[in-house]
Amino acid sequence: MNLDPLLKPCSIAVVGASDNPKRIGGVPVDLLIRAGFEKLYPVNPKNETVQGLKAYPDIESVPEVVDLVIMALSADATLPYLERCHARGIPAALVYAAGYAETNEAEGIARQDALVDFANRTGMRIAGPNAMGNANFTDAIFTSFGQSFQPGEPAGDCALVTQSGNMCATLFRTARRAGVTFSHVINTGNEAGIELSDYLDYLAGDPNTASAVCYIEELRDGPKFLQAAARFRAAGKLLAVFKVGASEKGAEATRSHTAALAGDAAAYDAAFARAGVARAGELTGLADLAYLHTLGERIGGSNCAILSISGAAGAILADALALNGAQVPTLPGDVQEALADQIPGHSMVSNPIDMTGNIVNDNEFVTECIRLALSPEDIDLLLLYMPGQFLANAQEQVERAAAASGKAIIVVDTFAMADRERLAAHGIGCFEDFDRAARAVCAYGQWKKAGARAPAALSASAAWPAFPAGRTALSETEAKQALAAFGVSVVQDALVQDREDLREAADFVGYPLVAKLVSPDIAHKTEHGLIRLNLSNADAVAEAFDEMMDKAQSMPGVRIEGVTLEPMLSGGVEILAGVTRDPVFGWLLTVGMGGVWTELMKDACHSLLPVDAGGAERMLRSLKGFRLLDGYRGAPKADVAAAARAIAALGDAVLAGGDALREVEINPLLVLPKGQGAVAVDALVLLNAESQSEVEEPA
Amino acid sequence: MNLDPLLKPCSIAVVGASDNPKRIGGVPVDLLIRAGFEKLYPVNPKNETVQGLKAYPDIESVPEVVDLVIMALSADATLPYLERCHARGIPAALVYAAGYAETNEAEGIARQDALVDFANRTGMRIAGPNAMGNANFTDAIFTSFGQSFQPGEPAGDCALVTQSGNMCATLFRTARRAGVTFSHVINTGNEAGIELSDYLDYLAGDPNTASAVCYIEELRDGPKFLQAAARFRAAGKLLAVFKVGASEKGAEATRSHTAALAGDAAAYDAAFARAGVARAGELTGLADLAYLHTLGERIGGSNCAILSISGAAGAILADALALNGAQVPTLPGDVQEALADQIPGHSMVSNPIDMTGNIVNDNEFVTECIRLALSPEDIDLLLLYMPGQFLANAQEQVERAAAASGKAIIVVDTFAMADRERLAAHGIGCFEDFDRAARAVCAYGQWKKAGARAPAALSASAAWPAFPAGRTALSETEAKQALAAFGVSVVQDALVQDREDLREAADFVGYPLVAKLVSPDIAHKTEHGLIRLNLSNADAVAEAFDEMMDKAQSMPGVRIEGVTLEPMLSGGVEILAGVTRDPVFGWLLTVGMGGVWTELMKDACHSLLPVDAGGAERMLRSLKGFRLLDGYRGAPKADVAAAARAIAALGDAVLAGGDALREVEINPLLVLPKGQGAVAVDALVLLNAESQSEVEEPA
Q: CATH 3.30.470.20 occupies which residues in chain A?
């Protein structure tokens, strides 16, 4: 979407313009006048002039078709006036008024729906409603009714995009304190017309924007966000996000004032990972990521050297970096020896490096210590603890080292006395807090290192059978057959409906075997005693058959399709793989160890589809329980590659099935010893009844 | 230890006093003169005067026996001079010099050992060496060579105790920025004489100290720390700690410059929990805890109400509080209704409460909103998001609410514009960052709520058998017999040494059974194939006996005591309980689910001994895997009470065994269905060879 008329307008009308520069309709007029914006047309039927400018009685009398109309009217008056603006050919509007979907009331929701309809019908680009407005520092255009963004602020290349006006102001102030300067500040409001991902898409192509930091409550269109993020990566621009709603109460609070879909937290995590965005765990972290991006070309990753005048500070930084997932590699022996030669007395040189308080007697060796600490190829940057006077006394030495190295130096000054501007001029970063520094360095370094993986190509190797109308689930046998067509190995089974066929089927499958009742209406068969393990002879099979059929026949409204017999497999490790549909991002794949592990320990990994076998193997290896697959306590190593292929095939199957599917799970997927494969012992396929002609709920 | 001569001296001599107020020997003279300290005696044989005061050529010529001598001499010169000070009857000394154990060199370590010997021999109270000195703001006594602590700073009731001079200055500045004022600032240095816990013990009894915040690298004497912490709690004083060394690299860096014992991180966690101290996860958190303690009487716990002018801020705070373990309870219906009546328009009132931007039109309802939000009994405090001008405009309304309530109000002002002093004068706290506020509120509230549990009384119900000299382990049978004497139920077994006795023993135990090889020299029997499960007849038992004996006889240097037969128990849930000895804190009890859970998932809980059955049950319930004991997926509930009694009995047994023991473990402890008890299936007792007359290492 071309947002130039909104974000880079050549002419602006303010409808509801006020003569009072403190009122909502007066602030943007005041800001734009002070910014020297020329083609500004206040619209106010009651005044001859507004803040010294000629006022126009209505939009029709404004002498040109403006790029942007700022609507400072009440919610009720807004839509009728927008129709008039559209009739004049105005391409973009910014709506300040509240009283829409954020009220959570029928009246407000109806107002927003009408606005959405209007935007869809006319193609007019509508920002808001309930939006604070924006600031374009590059071109000095201020359309906000907030006072935080003033003409005269230096322009920069970071864009700030938030779904909350207040967090917009908070982040702007926090980042400005750190020294970040901005190209655009954008508050998306209720996103009736233009949504966050539209702004990101625009900014990805904005030559004046090198990074964007986003406060996100909910995304309306997951795929659109992923596309915008991909454009950021392709352009080498930083996209950093903070997402609120990780806790139940936080999510509840978020949803109460957004009209967006409620996506799953795991899906957001998976989507952000897939998108390759940098992730801040705290709001201030967004400002810190924007700040670090100003040193971005010097930062290659998050392998850190720590150089400190205090052993304590070195240890604290090492802890904080490790906690946040960075590495503090032990330096090579020759580098350690060279450092030991430089530093008076004996101290730790392995990394962290302790220069000790001896620095007060001699600063000269600091330059060489920094050079040495940054010299190993696997060191991405240096954290330098030199608070207050220690840095002031050795600043030239540090600056010389920065000039000589292409890698980043980040000073930590817990005394908060450093001259940040002078440091910035030499390409040196500065934090006042150990943990904020560590969090930012880790998140930024990880972003820099991890290229977003290109989604795997969809193999679409097979097709699903036609689903009978009204079915909401496949039987286990049907489910396994369908998945087998996509390349998932499944346990061979025999379905027995008549007791007389039992012995022949059991001989075909072989002993020991497992007998399971088959019904589309019973999900948790173990708990109902409808799975019998390790049956070793014909009598045991017959007894199990009779008992399970009796039990199932006693359950009301349950359809019985028979009993399957399967070989009782021994050895191997059970894992599970399932795909559910997230309302924002679509298919979400979950991989975990056997049920108890996933349920009690939350030891699961999520990813958006598609996932290829390589991606599936990375998911398995990220599990805490992976060691169970990797030859734990002398057991044979499991066939991880086969498991990964089966998981990838599951994902392909789900993508091929599309909207007809609701959920597909293989549980357990039995991973046999290496070379013996991985087989789906049980599978569940739930169908999306709505996509079928007849709908019937299970009993 | 009475530290008045060190921390509250009436007279001070400075040996090595310098005329230059910037030099190490000059700083304390300068500070003390400026603080108006009267009985100050510079000792310097080369000068007639020092900074305008008469100088004395040596300690012997100082006209009175001073309380404290500050030693500003080199490391080599220090000890001989201390002997002279002791000869004059001076009770306390502060040693600035470095060059002791922190160097990690033999020479320095020997110097420190000599200093320790001197302190032990003479009883002289020695602070340091390698200490920066202290500041007593209450009495305006400055003994530091650092410039961070200046006369004229306001005195307060927080004590700062650190094991690093630099963190001392960092914390002091951070806390002062928050508005905290101090009674004492203490840097412990190398702790050759007086250690951190001695200072804490003194401060617990100091009437001018209401709280202490500690930066800790390593503790030298765990029990002494626990005693000092208990005195803090008994006096209603806050003791807050930050411990460095959580990561491998952090611990390595810490140990390289302390001469203390290396305690286990889990033991520190257990000790801090037992001690009932407040725990900061970040260094700045210590300053924030000290700051919150100034509002302490208003804060009852960490159940928070959130009142905000921004739905986003409410959600962010709810997330941050939940992440850190606080609660955001849903408000009662009548309170919600009353809030909805107060707040213009419709917004969220369940908690978080969203006042919306309507506050700009009317501030008056803020007072009543605060009253309502704090009215439910289960709400401990209010987090109030009103940044910048929003607070400035409604400050009187907030102050009226604070005056009317005994509970705490914590303002979060992300615009960093609040008048903190004015707020403090009204008993209102203020943070500028969502997450720092949440971390501090949670840690402080949890400390306030959790009374340290009094250690359980030791029942000492039995005694251990005499351990034969030279043994380093008991056999499984011996171990289970010994634990049974303390009340642990154990699996009845029969030890068979002669193949001819096998059938009779098996008939006695009953089929199916488990056979295990018994040897004091083999720890992991499963991995060696020396445990055979589910043997269902005499032939199977005989075959297992032969194979295991052959296998064991082929292992070099292994003593074989025979094979035990035990009943093969079915049902029940396996857990483990073990006790190891931490060098700092003594016995550390670990409780976890079966081996894989504890090893791969780190799902274990630790506690210092003693632990009674109630404490053991709390440990079990804190495990993620506890649901496996609690009737998971339709299984019968396990006998948790019996398991807890067995764990407590294990603890009692270990305490009774004392120094003769090295490690005792029950693994597995099989917890049977409720009412059927919990039995130790296997037990390991390792003996402390050093405490016995003859020492013999296992083969």
A: 455-491+570-699
Delimiting residues of CATH 3.40.50.261 domain(s) in chain B: 154-294, 299-450
pLDDT at residue A594, as a whole number: 78
Write the pLDDT tens digit of every residue in B99-146.
Answer: 999 888 899 999 999 999 999 999 999 999 999 999 999 999 999 998
Residue among B668, B669, B650 at smallest CA distance from B607 = B650
pLDDT in the model for residue A696: 39
CATH number for the domain running over A455-491+570-699: 3.30.470.20
B355 neighbors B307 (Cβ within 8 angstroms):
yes
Helix (H, G, I), strand (E, B) or coil at B51: coil
pLDDT in tens, B283-295: 999 999 999 998 8
Q: Please name every residue paired with A669 in a beta bridge, in sequence order, or none if there are none.
A: A575, A680
Interface test with B, best of A22, A147, A170, A190 (most B CBs within 10 A): A170
Whole-model pTM: value is: 0.89
From the list B105, B319, B357, the residue facing A247 with the nearest CB is: B319
Dump the DSSP string for B138-191. TTTEE--SSSSS-TTSPEEEEEEEES-HHHHHHHHHHHHHHT--EEEEEE-TT-
Is A299-450 a CATH 3.40.47.10 domain? no
* pLDDT value at B460 more than 60: yes
Tokens representing A664 are 């597909």
Fold of B154-294: Rossmann fold (3.40.50)
A249–B319 C-beta distance less than 8 A: yes
- The overall average pLDDT reported for chain A is 91
In words, the CATH class of domain B1-132 is alpha beta
**For residue A41, what are the β-bridge partners?**
A13
CB contact residues (below 8 A), chain B span 155-194, against chain A? 163-167, 169-170, 173-174, 177
Transcribe A565-625 into DSSP letters. EEE---SSEEEEEEEEEETTTEEEEEEEESHHHHHHH--EEEEESP--HHHHHHHHHTSGG
Assigned fold of A492-567: Dna Ligase; domain 1 (3.30.1490)
As a whole number of angstroms, the longest Cα–Cα distance in chain A is 101
The boundaries of every CATH 3.40.50.720 domain in chain A are 1-132
Give B33-76 pLDDT, tens digit per residue: 999 999 999 999 999 999 999 999 999 999 999 999 999 999 99
Instruction: State mean pLDDT over B377-395.
Output: 95
Residue A490 pairs in a beta bridge with A680
The owner of tokens 């050759």 is B192
- Reply yes or no on whether the pLDDT at A357 is more than 70: yes
Place of tokens 């206040």: A42
A415 interface with B at CB cutoff 8 Å: yes
Coil vs helix vs strand at B319: helix
| pLDDT tens digits, B492-516 | 778 898 888 898 888 878 888 999 9
Amino acid at B560: I
What is the residue type of B231? R
Residue A612 has pLDDT above 80, yes or no: yes
Cα–Cα distance, A133 to A127 (Å, whole number): 8
Provide the pairing of β-strand B92-95 with B125-127.
parallel
The ipTM assigned to this model is 0.89
Q: Which residues contact A452 (CB under 8 A, 6 or more apart)?
A: A229, A230, A233, A274, A275, A276
Option in B103, B252, B311 nearest A257 (CB): B311
CA atoms within 13 A on the CB side of B244: 33
| Residues within 8 A of B (CB atoms), A 524-563 only | 526-527
Q: From its phi and psi, is residue B36 left (phi > 0), alpha (psi between -120 and 50) or beta?
A: left
Count CA atoms closer than 13 A to B305's CA, side-chain side: 31
